[in-house]
Amino acid sequence: MSDSQNARAASLSHLHSGSLAKGDPLSTPIVMSSVFHLPGDPAGARQYGRFDNPTWEAVEAALAHLEDADAIAFPSGMAAISSVFLALLSGGDRVLLPSDGYYTPRVLLEKHLIRLGIRYDTRPTASFLEGGFAGYRMVLVETPSNPGLDVCDIRAVAEAAHAAGAIVVADNTTMTPYGQRPLDLGVDIVLAADTKAPNGHSDVLFGHVASRNGEMIETIREWRKLAGVIPGPFEAWLVLRGLETLELRFDRMCTSAEIIAARLADHPAIRSVRYPGLAGDPSHALSKTQMLRFGSLIGLTLGSEEQAEAFIDTCPLIEATTSFGGVHTSAERRARWGDDVAEGFVRLSVGCEPTETLWQAIDAALKTA
Ligand SMILES: Cc1ncc(COP(=O)(O)O)c(C=O)c1O
């Protein structure tokens, strides 16, 4: 990691200590209160639990520190995405989405936002720049895309989309601020499902939006307050605790993924591997220019649906779950959700287990699958 990333990681756990009075708890308290003591003029104080909460403020301060931008917390990744759409788009606007990214934003637009007159188009991540951005009010990139792990050039998209007058949003869920920094590459808004690696323990859903554009932040924050898409204080506290070890966990996960992806690429049971860190991957050259790490997700294709399911079921160190980014390694066949991938395609989310022990378990399961 660069010195600035190291400094950011090191100071994260000490953010709160500057405001402590003698005798205060070092751990941030969970404040479970829907109302606050509010006599007289309500201005300048916390007023009501849909407007403010000290535990959100703490997690937002940590997220803001990581993103180097203002941050707003949400109760899930989709709450963050839908809030960006609903707060910033109007009837008649067009949005461009990746055709190979997380599918739920497309379904949301197709089933609901279309009724409000918001239209959308999709385009593959690998050729996202082709066709330009004229006519779009918003452009959403997700790179590497989930689950195919294709990559687009964030800086080039931001420049071209801005020239066409669009707001540029990056879903950075697969990378976290330690793996990729889309705001530094020119996008207006970064958002993520903190449900994944930022929380990391598979026990909470959460999301955030971050931006250096004060007007956009105020609009989205007001949207959250009016629409009531607020996180619970306990969830905020869990994510805050998760963030304190994110750098450590993500480092182990990415290092293991790099080693395991290279071994999978040579494995006789595997037809193909996608991982941005592999020298032979179609996205490698671009990934090196914009990613700080290559991530913890590997896409591997086995010969058939049966082989893929047997691999997942046989390996004692792989949890058969959807989602990714947990401390435990997990995997799933994405075709079961209708993603446009081969039946034998498995998205492997590499966890924090010791690397060689994990590899031995994966290798043994592949031999019997
Ligand atoms: C890339 C990406 N963005 C957003 C989301 C939505 O997050 P959540 O499930 O917390 O709503 C997901 C969930 O899998 C995702 O993979």
From TrEMBL:
<dbReference type="InterPro" id="IPR015424">
    <property type="entry name" value="PyrdxlP-dep_Trfase"/>
</dbReference>
<dbReference type="Pfam" id="PF01053">
    <property type="entry name" value="Cys_Met_Meta_PP"/>
</dbReference>
<protein>
    <submittedName>
        <fullName>Cystathionine gamma-lyase</fullName>
    </submittedName>
</protein>
<dbReference type="InterPro" id="IPR015421">
    <property type="entry name" value="PyrdxlP-dep_Trfase_major"/>
</dbReference>
<feature type="modified residue" description="N6-(pyridoxal phosphate)lysine">
    <location>
        <position position="196"/>
    </location>
</feature>
<dbReference type="GO" id="GO:0004123">
    <property type="term" value="F:cystathionine gamma-lyase activity"/>
</dbReference>
<dbReference type="GO" id="GO:0019343">
    <property type="term" value="P:cysteine biosynthetic process via cystathionine"/>
</dbReference>
<dbReference type="GO" id="GO:0030170">
    <property type="term" value="F:pyridoxal phosphate binding"/>
</dbReference>
<dbReference type="InterPro" id="IPR000277">
    <property type="entry name" value="Cys/Met-Metab_PyrdxlP-dep_enz"/>
</dbReference>
<dbReference type="InterPro" id="IPR015422">
    <property type="entry name" value="PyrdxlP-dep_Trfase_small"/>
</dbReference>
<keyword id="KW-0663">Pyridoxal phosphate</keyword>
<dbReference type="GO" id="GO:0019346">
    <property type="term" value="P:transsulfuration"/>
</dbReference>
<dbReference type="GO" id="GO:0005737">
    <property type="term" value="C:cytoplasm"/>
</dbReference>
<comment type="similarity">
    <text>Belongs to the trans-sulfuration enzymes family.</text>
</comment>
<keyword id="KW-0456">Lyase</keyword>
